[in-house]
Amino acid sequence: MNKNKTQLKGLTLEELQALFLEIGEAKFRALQVFNWMYNYRVTSFDKMENLSKPLRNKLKENYSLITLNFAASETSTSGTKKLIFETEEGNKIESVIIPDEKRNTLCISTQVGCPLDCKFCATGLMGYKKNLSAGEIFDQYLLAQQHSERDISNIVYMGMGEPLLNYNATLNSLKIFSEELTKGISLKKITVSTAGIAPKIVELADSGLKAKLAFSLHSCFEKTRSKIMPINEKYPLKDNLEAVTHYAKKTKTRITFEYIMLKGLNDRDEDIKALIKLTNQIPSKINVIPFNSLQHMHPTGFSASLFPTEKKRIDDFVQILRDNNVTVMVRETQGDDIAAACGQLAVKFK
After folding, report:
1. What average pLDDT score do residues 199-216 get?
2. Residue 293 reports pLDDT greater than 80
3. Domain boundaries of the chain, sorted by first residue
């Protein structure tokens, strides 16, 4: 990667067209380059065969198509594969491929680290370094596809970082996926997960892009949620629930409420009652997630006091919800043997 060159990967079609007009090239050339980058996924201008040689040389001299380098991978006994990529500055990020009978899901990162300090999450414990560019977000998909035995069928913005705190890059990456020229994956197969940045949830709803939204709920009670998710102090649950209600209405999609089961904290009978009430008010489903160990991060303070809910209690919790007509999915733990399960992603900064 050449630091003196301008990065093309990550530009939307509109941005690419404006750039080509600015450098004195025909607008349709931007369409061709967009197609090569995001549909055919080439990483060299020399492979863009329908461009003239002078234009290819011009692009080679001034622009780059590569944002990330593959650094390493590790495969779990469950088949889950953790991929480590390196940014131009030498920072490392993680993506995870989660194979399933019906789908092959890629979990991608939007930041190096995360500033939110959610107490159940390893990424929060590692701190925050920087936002990823739209190109670095998109390149995780392109590079992961090279390391996957099957086509990636679904993408979840649930890796390292809070997507809506890196809103512009997240939005631009979604715009790239939404273009008809980008044929790999449609927005219907993409989910953006957020810890709850209420104004940005509304902004995303009003953007015209209809990605699915997953909201990290983890408690229906403000006090408990603030204890495990400090961001709740700035953007209270009340404000976020108004925002996700707007999102569901505007996009005509169901919200997924993510719910990590924490022993004695959010697995009580009153939590069940609150979830039943909530799901009756907002078109939604609940994704129940077993808490995965953070011992590889040597947690201290409140994080060290968190323990997983026993399996029997999870089973009973889920059954009561289902008996009350709540749609519930239970996420099976995959990749915990390589610290690639939900909430376990973390790497050291450069």
Report:
1. 97
2. no
3. 6-64, 69-338
What gap in Å lies between CA 135 and CA 151, rounded to an integer? 20
Q: For residue 344, how many C-alpha atoms fall within 13 Å in the half-sphere facing its CB?
A: 20
Please answer whether residues 223 and 229 qualify as being in contact, where contact means their C-beta atoms are separated by less than 8 angstroms: no
pTM of the model: 0.91
Query: Hey, which CATH number is domain 6-64, 3.30.70.2470, 1.10.10.10, 1.10.150.530, 3.55.40.20?
Result: 1.10.150.530
Provide CB contacts within 8 A for 326, sequence distance 6+. Answer: 275, 276, 279, 285, 286
Per-residue confidence band for 273, with pLDDT thresholds at 50, 70 and 90: very high
Checking DSSP bridges between strand 284-290 and strand 255-261, what pairing results, if any?
parallel
Q: pLDDT tens, 81-119?
A: 999 999 999 999 999 999 988 999 999 999 999 999 888
- Which residues carry out catalysis? 94, 342
Rounded to the nearest angstrom, the gap between the alpha carbon of residue 334 and the centroid of all alpha carbons in its chain is 17
Measured between alpha carbons, how far is 156 from 134 in angstroms, rounded to an integer?
Answer: 15
pLDDT at residue number 298:
64
pLDDT score recorded for residue 63: 96
- 103, 154 Cβ separation under 8 angstroms: yes
3-state secondary structure of 78: coil
Pick from 105, 193, 210: which is nearest to 148 by CA?
105
Specify the CATH superfamily of domain 69-338: Aldolase class I (3.20.20.70)
For the chain, the residue count is: 350
